[in-house]
Every structure is written in C-alpha cells, then in structure tokens.
Write a sequence for this structure.
C-alpha cells in the first residue's frame, strides 16, 4: 500500500522557488532519507508535507486521501507527523505536558506514555522538568516522543542529528531503529554515512530538484556527492 | 491610611479580572483588542437590562450574562478578529477601534447616556460593611468581589494547567506552529480564548456596575486601566495580572488620599514609570548591564567590551 | 555614485500627477477668494474641513510612512490649545499665538519622543494615549482652565466677527496648504525615502545605515506640530477650551478613520478620506450617536475588506497610485 504520494509539488519561499516539482511514491513501511546541501529545499519540503507551508502547485496524498489542502493539525489526525527542525518543544511546559499534548490531540493507538517511555527510556527521569531546560539530545528524544505518542503512520524527522553530540546521535538512532517496520519514516540527515546506513531508500535534493533517487546499495558515493553538490544530473540509478 | 491600602488591594481584584481577558487575548491570540473596555460595558449593560427591564434578580442576571458574553467573544473571533489577524499589526488596531466606536455609540443610542448602576438592586449589600479594630470600615461588597476575582482567576489557572484545552492554549501561545504539528487547531483555541476573555470583561463590567456606575462611554477608561494592570504585572501570567491589578488599585487608592483628582493620575504615572524602567533596563542589558551602560554614558567609552562579556 | 547621478535615474513625475498638482494650485487660489463671496456658515464649515485635512495628513505621516500607530495625538491637539490659552493670557495677540503655541508644543513632542519612540508597537499606541490622559489631568489643575469647565479665549472677541472669521479662514487655508506641501517636500526628500524603508523593513533599513530613531523622531515631532496647529486653529474658531474636548480620544479616532478610509500610506488618500468624512458628517451628522456607530462600522468594513482604502480601489484596477511617494527607477538601456 502507498503511504505517501507526492505529485509534482512546488513550493515557494518568498521570492524563492524552493521546491521545483518533486514526485515521489513511498510504500508503507519505507525508511527514506532525504539529503542535500543547505538551501536545497529539504526543510521547505518537510514543511509542505506537514501542512505548515502552502503547496504552490501539485498534490500530496496520504494513504490514498488527498491532503494537499489540509492544514497541519488535520494532517496529523490523518496520520502524518513532523518532528520539526529545532525540535520546537513547548519550553514553559513540562516534558509530561509536552507528551500529553501530543497524546490528546493525536490519532490514538498503541503509543501511550508507557510505550513511548519503553522506546525512549532516556525520557523517564525528565517527565516533570520544564522542556526548556533540557540538553539537545534530551530535547530531540522528547520531540520524537511527542510525535510518536500521536500515533502517526508516517513520521517525518527534520534534521535529526543537527546540533547533537555524537553520543546523543547514537542514542536517537537506536531509538529510531525500534520504529523500523512500525511506520513509514522520512528523515532529513546531513550526515551521509548515517543516512546511507539507516535508510532503505535515499533521495538527494539540489536547488529544489530531486537529483537522485535510489537505494544505498545501488548508489556510489561519487554519484551521491555529485548530486549533493549539483555537479551534473544522474539518471535515476534504481527508482 | 490602612483603610486606603485595603481598599486599593480590593480594587485590584476588579482590575485583575478586567486585565486577565486582555492579557489572554494578547498572550494566546496575539491580538490587541482595543474594544475590551467596551466589552466590559456591554456586559454591564446586558446585566442591567436583564435586571431592570426583564425583572430578573442580580445573581440570575449575572449567570445569564456571562455565557452570553462568552458567545459574543466566540462570534467576534470567528467573524471579525480571525480576518483582522491576517492583516498584520495595523488592521487589528483599526478594526477594534472601529468596533469600540460602534459599541459605544450603539449603546448610547440604545440605552441613553445616563449613568446606570446595579447598586440599587442588591439591597443593603451596596453599603454594608464590617467594622474592624482600629476604626476601619471594610465594605462587604468589595470583599466579596475580591474573593470572586480570586476564585475566577484561580479557576482560570486550573483550566489552563489541568485540562487538555488549557494545555492546548498554552502550547498555542508558546509556539503556534509546533502546536499545529501536535494536532491542535489554533482557530478553535483562539475562539475559546476569545470567549473566555470577553466573558471575563463582562464580569469586570458587572463588578463596575455593582460598585459604581457605568455609562456607554466608560469603556475607553476601562481599557486604559486593563492595559495598565497588564503592563505593570507583566504580560502572560495570571499571577502577574493579579499583582498588576493590585498595584494599580493601590496606586489609585494612595493617589486618592491626596485628592480625588490624583487617584487616576497616580495609576497612569505608575504605569508610565514601570514602562520607562523596563525600557531602560532592556537598553542597559543590551549594553551589558547597568555598570557598563553607566560607564559608556558617562565616559563615552566603546560599548564593545560590554557586549562581549 | 553622486546624488545627481542617482537623481538622474529616477523617473520624472508622471503627466497625470503634474495635472493634479496644477489643479490643486488653482483650487487653492480659488479657495483664497471664497470668504469674500460665500456666506459665513460655509466659511465656518470650510475652516473645519481644512482642520480635518491637516489631521488626516499628519496621522498618515505617522502611521502610513513611519509605522507609528498613535492613539494619543489628542495630546498635541489639547496642548496646542492650552498653550494658546496661556500665551493669550500672557498678552500675546491671538493670531500669532496660533502658530507660536503649535511650535512650543513641538518642543514638548521632542522631549516625549525620547521616551515613546523606544516602545514596541502595541505599547506605543497605548502609552501615547495614557500620556494624553496624564497631560489632560495636569492641564486641568491649572487654575486658568478651571478644571473641566474650561475657559475661553476672550481676546478673540475684540475682533469683529466677520474679520475674525475671514482671518481664521485664511490662516487655516495657509496652514492646510503648508501641511500638505510640507509633507510632500518631506516625503519626496531623503527622510521620506528613509521612512518608507523603515516601514517596509526596519532591520534592513538600519543595516544600510539609516538612523531609524532620528527619522521617526523627525516625523513624530512634525506630526505633533501639525496636530497642535490644527488644535489651535480649532480653538480659534470655537473660542472655548475644555480639557475633555481638547484632549478627547475622538481626535485620534477621526484621524484614523480618515486615513484608513482614504488609503493609508498614500499621499492623496488621507485628503480624500478627510473630504469623505466631512461629507458624511454634513449628511448624517444629525443622527448623532447612530451616525457615529455607523462610522465605526464603516471603519471595521474598510479595515477588513478594503484595507488600502479608496485609493486601493483605484490601485486594484491596475492604475498607478496618483502622487506616489515611491521612487520609480528608469530601467537601464541595452
């Protein structure tokens, strides 16, 4: 079954044409990594998929339902969550309240406070602390937890490891590993090695265009770095 | 002196209720409602109409007025404020000034310009008082109103901290986008907040009608008082609003001891002084604290050192 | 690049604008002759119209070009009136006092500007209003004002009514023309360009070296002098000064209405707004409170559905803004 389908979507960011016609079909359960240089349009793409940024043209469908015109809160209820760049926790609220908010307004399902803590044990001692006072890794864990507890079927994670210590990145990926197979995952990752080892499929954006689409096994590092820097177009290696 | 202090504190409860709605709208919806004072007057007029024309008793009238005001707030948000919010900073101000003019003159045309009061409908309560040691007379009505204010603000605090709706309100106030990503519909939260804010304004208007008089043109002055309490106490916390209300009430009571004309003026001066203090504080911290600022100003030294440290 | 070289690249004034300016000049000359021909009632009404135009142009300068939304301009209307009362009491003849009082008010605006211009938008709006209230309270303490009762500029009664009316009319006409022309010169000059840059993006303006504070201060003081001048003219024509009317919030609300309805941030919009407001007042003014409630409703509708005012209607049709203060550059050739 198809989880997420993008049909020739375009996005603008002020005067900038940030996303220029991306089409993509993600079967349920896929783990996709999105890579690309700064300004390639990754974050705009994520925000468009989550409904935070208007889609200038094209369409997005989620499990066969056209969600192009749905606002962000309705897309969450349709089963798509975004864990945004910069985590965006509610700083004045406690970790527990952050998670409660995710649970109360989400879809309902197997993910509850208890199961989220099972998956992300590092959260347990933090529950009653204000979210504003946590370290980067702790914040990322709470943000993932807040997305999970809404019981999405598709989870987008923007800039997973940005600003985290190597140990914290390791912890976050161990947690993400447990989600494999439970939901469709889309991660935006700057660290190429990490992206290639974690994802089953990889796309690379350059100046708003999808330069590359393939599996880590079928792509060479050279192809990826060329696409990353937009040196020349590579015919889709294995789409 | 002590009597004036007590009266000032009690008056503060009324100002806190008046200010809480304004603060809620500003903190959650990011909307400055310049018709807030006129909403209060509308609440008072509605209650007066229920009592004087429909013949209800005062508690009944209050019980009907508050939900009606809440509904009005919801509708205003839905029909006017939501649209105004899309226009940046200027349009909400222009819209609500227009709304204020409409309400004031509409109420004037509908109810006439004479001052009205609920005081005549609550029997002896309007003048009854306790005689405390030290020859202090403490009015019963102000005490009851202060207690009501505490209960209402406390209740609002519980709603904001203990319910799902309250958490959604705080989440939206803190980061609207992140709240949307958690499945919160900001428009519903905003409508709920507007309903509460206008109901609170209505309650404040009823308070005013109970302890004094209202006219269709009392709104602008109430708006000023509400703003003063919010700014004095600091935006965004109910406790701050209560403190701000009490500080304003105290300043007015103290000023009133000098001369009745000084009462309101004293409140204005406290407000301006606090604003000035915050501003210089902000300017100083930008330059690396008071000491660096003073050095910079007095000796005209470069401010770079202060910024780096 | 030298200033002359830049000036060379800016489009000259469009033909339509030149015609408007010419027509306005002729109209002013005609208006100068009006009091010799028209009945006293018309002359009085025209004085009010000129005052309204000054108000509208001044508030537009503040809000439309400097982004300063003030609901406290009545502070200067009232202060101008009060200063005039004081000066006439001290022996200054009333007609010069109209202008001297306005200038003195400007000095106070300078002091106030150091305080209010450092505030954020919402605080600025409310603080200016509170300051107006404080000044009103202080002025009412002056024994000469007699509290809320107010006072009259009795020295004006020394002149014959006809002569007085005609003098005030001509002074108002000159002041209005001066306010419009002064605004024009200011906006066409460097300050105008800087102010529009600040309004559109304050940080960007600061980063290219514009002192945002200075520009705002210049405009704030100028608008205050303008409002004070309108206030002294109004006092001269109505003679009685009462703190509650002089410092009434209604002045700011009228200014806001005229600017909003005409078209905020355009040169011609406020003048059109003042004309419309004047006409509405003449036609519906007798309905009293219902009329004012209706004005509020019109303001809401304009703010929500036509935020660029009457001039916006024109722009929506694809026409250029008449008398635009924006500079159009010549496209480089080749």
């Amino acid at each position: 079954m198809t989880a997420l389908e993008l049909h020739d979507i375009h996005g603008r960011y002020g005067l900038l044409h940030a996303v220029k016609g991306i089409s993509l079909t993600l079967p349920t359960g896929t783990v996709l990594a999105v890579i690309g240089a700064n300004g390639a349009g990754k974050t705009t793409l994520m925000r468009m998929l989550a409904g935070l940024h208007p889609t200038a043209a094209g369409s997005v469908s989620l499990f066969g339902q056209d969600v192009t015109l749905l606002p962000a809160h309705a897309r969450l209820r349709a089963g798509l969550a975004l864990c945004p760049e910069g985590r965006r926790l509610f700083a004045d609220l406690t970790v527990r309240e952050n998670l409660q908010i995710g649970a109360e307004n989400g879809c309902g399902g197997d993910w509850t406070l208890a199961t989220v803590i099972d998956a992300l044990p590092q959260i347990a001692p933090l529950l009653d602390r204000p979210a504003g006072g946590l370290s980067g890794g702790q914040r990322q864990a709470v943000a993932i937890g807040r997305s999970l507890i809404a019981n999405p079927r598709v989870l987008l994670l923007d800039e997973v490891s940005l600003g985290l210590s190597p140990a914290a990145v390791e912890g976050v990926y161990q947690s993400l590993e447990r989600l494999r197979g439970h939901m469709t995952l889309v991660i935006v990752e700057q660290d190429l090695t990490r992206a290639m080892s974690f994802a089953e499929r990889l796309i690379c954006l350059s100046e708003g265009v999808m330069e590359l689409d393939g599996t880590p096994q079928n792509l060479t590092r050279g192809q990826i770095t060329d696409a990353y820097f937009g040196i020349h177009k590579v015919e889709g290696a294995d789409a | 002196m002590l009597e004036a202090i007590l009266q000032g504190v009690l008056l503060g409860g009324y100002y806190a209720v008046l200010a809480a709605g304004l603060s809620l709208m500003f903190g959650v919806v990011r909307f400055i409602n310049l018709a807030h004072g006129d909403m209060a007057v509308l609440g008072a007029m509605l209650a007066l109409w229920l009592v004087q024309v429909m013949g209800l008793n005062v508690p009944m009238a209050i019980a009907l007025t508050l939900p009606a005001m809440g509904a009005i707030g919801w509708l205003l948000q839905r029909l006017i404020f939501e649209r105004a919010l899309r226009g940046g900073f200027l349009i909400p101000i222009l819209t609500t000034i227009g709304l204020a003019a409409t309400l004031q003159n509409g109420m004037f045309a509908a109810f006439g310009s004479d001052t009205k009061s609920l005081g005549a409908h609550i029997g002896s309560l309007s003048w009854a008082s306790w005689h405390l040691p030290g020859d202090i007379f403490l009015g019963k009505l102000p005490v009851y109103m202060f207690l009501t204010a505490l209960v209402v603000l406390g209740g609002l605090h519980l709603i904001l901290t203990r319910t799902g709706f309250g958490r959604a309100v705080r989440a939206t106030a803190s980061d609207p986008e992140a709240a949307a990503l958690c499945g919160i519909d900001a428009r519903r939260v905003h409508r709920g907040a507007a309903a509460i804010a206008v109901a609170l304004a209505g309650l404040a208007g009823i308070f005013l009608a109970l302890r004094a008089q209202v006219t269709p043109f009392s709104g602008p002055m109430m708006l000023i008082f509400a703003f003063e309490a919010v700014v004095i106490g600091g935006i965004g916390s109910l406790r701050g609003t209560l403190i701000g209300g009490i500080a304003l009430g105290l300043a007015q009571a103290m000023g009133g001891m000098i001369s009745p004309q000084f009462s309101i003026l004293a409140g204005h001066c406290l407000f301006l002084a606090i604003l000035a203090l915050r501003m210089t504080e902000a300017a100083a911290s930008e330059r690396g604290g008071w000491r660096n600022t003073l050095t910079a100003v007095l000796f005209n030294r470069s401010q770079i050192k202060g910024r780096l440290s | 690049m030298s200033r002359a070289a830049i000036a060379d690249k800016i489009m000259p004034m469009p033909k339509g604008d030149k015609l408007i300016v010419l027509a306005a000049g002729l109209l002013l000359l005609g208006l100068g002759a009006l009091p010799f021909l028209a009945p006293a009632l018309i002359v009085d009404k025209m004085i009010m119209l000129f005052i309204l135009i000054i108000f509208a142009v001044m508030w537009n300068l503040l809000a439309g070009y400097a982004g300063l939304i003030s609901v406290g301009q009545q502070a200067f209307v009232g202060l101008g009136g009060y200063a005039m009362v004081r000066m006439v009491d001290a022996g200054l003849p009333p007609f010069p006092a109209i202008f001297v009082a306005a200038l003195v008010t400007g000095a106070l605006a300078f002091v106030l500007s150091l305080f209010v211009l450092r505030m954020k938008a919402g605080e600025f709006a409310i603080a200016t209003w509170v300051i107006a209230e404080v000044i009103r309270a202080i002025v009412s303490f002056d024994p000469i004002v007699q509290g809320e009762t107010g006072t009259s500029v009795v020295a004006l009664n020394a002149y014959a009514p006809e002569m007085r009316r005609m003098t005030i009319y001509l002074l108002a006409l000159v002041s209005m023309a001066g306010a419009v022309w002064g605004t024009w010169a200011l906006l066409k000059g460097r300050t105008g360009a800087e102010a529009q840059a600040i309004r559109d993006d304050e940080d960007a303006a600061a980063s290219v070296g514009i002192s945002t504070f200075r520009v705002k201060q210049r405009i704030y003081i100028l608008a205050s002098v303008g409002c004070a001048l309108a206030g002294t003219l109004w006092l001269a024509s109505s003679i009685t000064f009462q703190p509650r009317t002089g410092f009434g919030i209604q002045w700011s609300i009228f200014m806001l209405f005229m600017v909003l309805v005409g078209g905020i941030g355009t040169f011609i919009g406020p003048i059109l707004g003042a004309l419309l407001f004047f006409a509405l007042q003449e036609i519906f003014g007798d309905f009293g409170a219902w009329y004012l409630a209706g004005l509020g409703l019109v303001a809401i509708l304009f703010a929500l559905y036509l935020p660029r005012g009457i001039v916006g209607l024109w722009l929506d049709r694809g026409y250029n803004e008449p008398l635009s203060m924006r500079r159009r550059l010549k496209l480089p050739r080749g």
In short: Residues 2-29 of chain B form the longest helix (28 residues). The CA atoms of residues 232 and 274 of chain B lie 6 Å apart. The mean pLDDT of chain B is 89. Chain B touches chain A at residues 164, 167-168, 170-171, 174-175, 177-186 (CB under 8 Å).
